[in-house]
Amino acid sequence: MHKKTGLIFFPAFDWAISPTHPEREERLLYTRDQIFEEGVMDLPQIHEYAPRLASIYDISRTHFCVPQVQNQVTEAHLIASGSILQLADSVVSGEIKNGFAIVRPPGHHAMRVVHGNRGFCNINNEAILVDYLRRRHGIRKIAIVDSDVHHGDGTQDIFYHDPDVLFISFHQDGRTIYPGSGFSDELGGPGAYARTLNVPLPPGIADETFMYVVDNLVLPVVNEFQPELVINSAGQDNHYSDPLGSMRFTAEAYADFTQKLKPNLAVLEGGYAIETALPYVNLAIILALAGIDYSNVREPDYYPGKFKESPEKVAQVHRMVEELLKTWNTRDQVDFSQIFGSGKYYQRKKFIFYDTDYINEQQLEQVRRCNECPGYITIASRARRGNPAPVSIFAITIPLQACQACHSEAYDIYDQAKKKPEYDYVYMQDKYTDKYRTYVKSKGQELVTKGLVENAKNYSIE
Amino acid sequence: MYIGIDVGGTSTNAVLLDNGLVRDSVTVPSSADIITSLLEALDKIMTNVTAESIERVVLSTTLITNLIAEKKYTPVGLILIPGPGLSHEYYQFHTDTLIISGAIDYRGREIMPLNDDEIEKAINILSTKGYKKVAVVGKFSVRNNKHEQEIVSKVKCLQPDWHVEIGHQVAGQLNFPRRVVSTMLACATRDKYSFFVESVQAALTMRGIEGPVLILKADGGTMLLNKVTGVPIETIFSGPAASTLGVQALIPPGETAVVVDIGGTTTDLALILSGQPLLSSKGAPVYEQLTQVRALAVKSVAVGGDSLVERVGQEILVCPKRLGPPFCMGGPMPTPTDALRVLGLTGVGNAKQAVEAMEILGQPLGISHSEVAQRIINSVINVIVQEIENMFTQWEQEPAYRVWEVLQKRKERPNMVVGVGGGAAGFITQIAAKVGGSPVIPPYAPVANAIGAAVAIPTLQVNLRADTERGYYTIEQEGYQGKIEKTRFTEEDALLLADEWLKKRAEKYGLGNTVSNSEINHRDVFNMVRNWTTTGRIYDISVQTPRGIIGHIGAKDGFSNA
User: Fold this and answer.
1) ipTM score over 0.95, yes or no
2) A102 and A241 inside one domain
3) For B43, phi and psi rounded to 5 degrees?
4) Residues B299 and B335 grouped into a single domain
5) Out of A30, A42, A283, closest to residue B177 by CB
6) Are residues B467 and B450 located together in one domain of the fold?
7) How many domains are there within chain B?
8) In chain B, pLDDT over 70 holds for what percent of residues?
């Protein structure tokens, strides 16, 4: 018997950001109706799993939540995130061939530092998954393809300096849609150049050009990268009926894309055409993952030839694909000192706006350039939410692949930062030893999550 | 006084309950004809009581189970309206299936009209092939039954004498393929069920029994024996439900127990969690086909006291089949019962022959008869214990779609392992030791199923789905769809409406006043927001009469709450 496709369906029928917010109880109601009425869960090719909770510890491995994880996540977040980890365990153990987490709330706009909710996201489910796969299952090289209409800026932010994560996002041009980023010159830091690829698509692009990007850029690059695992951030708002996006993709094209990419794990992200797109797109993706004929899945108002693409826009996309492919192919022949300078650190200044929670954040991110490892990263961040005084934090993250020199250097910096008066909280995220610390200035206290504690509910005080 | 009768495959049990005590019980061998067995048991149990003193009779029979297992029904043709979605090649139901174009969506909107010519053609094809029974089922017909109704009136017009069964009236939950199977089986069994009902009613009237007569369903609830109301396939697998309810009545309230019913060839397992039998999260599978029949979660394991035991190479295997009675009772081959006899765990059969049976297996391997016996018992116990463990994990692993459901998930293990059925006695102590509960063989264990029937009470559910934007609501169990009259239809209104329907259903089922205290199973409220304004609400509300049994056997005050 062929292996099954694992599904976790967690519509969170009792959770919403607010009663009328797009992220509300109703979002997956019609998807539920469609997949239940089709009897999808009974198909011999499908296995439905129960959701589970991610631990606070799983979140600390990826994020700096300010002030703490408990302040940024609700139980719904932990369930969405945990469901994905459940499917990952089952894929890695060989129980299932692939998995699809149709869960909410979504996560791909959540960056490494979390002051609040942005783009409907608090924590980044795919990033938590990557860190978990590395720590738990020793999987290192991972490709993430983001098919949401919005740029996956959170995922990009987290893996910008990680040479072992290939991140490809195709989305509507950031000049016309939230979050206003994801241009083709955002290519990753000096240690991970061209491991981030962005394909901003002009509004109105339809299936044909979508497939062109997939066939000519996404698939060849992913294949050459040779990841151990492929993740799809399966946002569905490129659909022609989406109220937030202006693209023209169909459910069938989403399924074609899935069939071609063959992701090991697909994770629902955005998609707010809750009646006209989601029931059909989700069904089509499930069937494609399970290797079942999806040709009879179609939107009631769709007919072939419904959308015509503008030849200029198509030509523009073709040129961009060619450029990006060239960048990818010559990624190792680039003179990095020309692009990134040649200092000990490479630094970026970022202004991050949290649309949902109305927070303005300023960040200075510095990555230690090291020939032995990807280098540690430090982030000084200051965020203001309404009237109260802004919060200042300093955070250090040590990658799993860190060399000894970087590891001890990072701890020196951590100790120095704890003494600096300007930071309210100082964080140390040591992925090398899997230990995560928060220093609370006002209490002079250090909170630590340590060891492989299953479902660690709280921090302990050391 | 209450009478419970369980007509099983090999024997028919009846009990007479009097004020919470078992006043009498009888067992007769089952004959080929269910009604004969039933009346024989009934007459025996009534020898010392008058017909007037019988307040009610509850039956549990294998009628529908047998009809379907043996395919003793005339074939049913299918007319399906699946519309877009899963490829139509997936709809294989082993009968002539005609697919008609047309589609309804998840909110009950027509997205593709029916085609009259196609319908006529389909009816003609079925007629040419000799069908006189037809099931009509549409995808999303539970949200809007217009298409199903239109096809049915066409069939009635062209073939007035056909028996037609309609999807939305048989199976109201979402799941089109299961609805097809349920409707097909309902269609197949309806006439034979009606005949059974008439015969039983006539026989009871003749005996002067005037109290209500009910029949047990797969979910442990009852329905009035009446040929018009109810769906006959809901009475399938009432046997395991009867045993489980029997155990529920025989152990103290609130216990968590596993019910182990070891028969000749199969062992049925069921769970009682904190005093309440566990319902299967999905509908019952009926011979490999999935239906929407609400049933208790019962796991049938293909091992029993009469299972064939064979030596294969160096291994001694318990096989999932029966060649006859145990060797010690004159059967052809060794069985687990022989092993029990050798170890002194049962008194049935001839001890010498049991030893002989073990030697047949052990001699080629050079092991003693008692070691062979121990090995056999161990392997039977291991299979059963593994399945018990699986049932608990499966229950823990059931999907959850709401945050609170995920958070309230618990881990539970049984305090009691309760053995019923003929083969239980020899095995139950060892099973309990492995599972970590105390072994219990309750008094009246051999007739637990008849007790279960006697104490069963009707359970009624109403699932209401109201869509205020479209202005209509549906009642899942009734296949009803109606208009929402109020302009501002609130959650309170939806709850009241659901309660009203529960009362209506209770009256229809002859239960009148029993629904004074309804329980809310779940209530979901969905704000519908279109273009940033709230345009309506969808209410998904499920209410039911309390589940349970009339009372516990031997309870201090008898069946005071009955």
Assistant:
1) no
2) yes
3) -65, -40
4) yes
5) A42
6) no
7) 3
8) 98
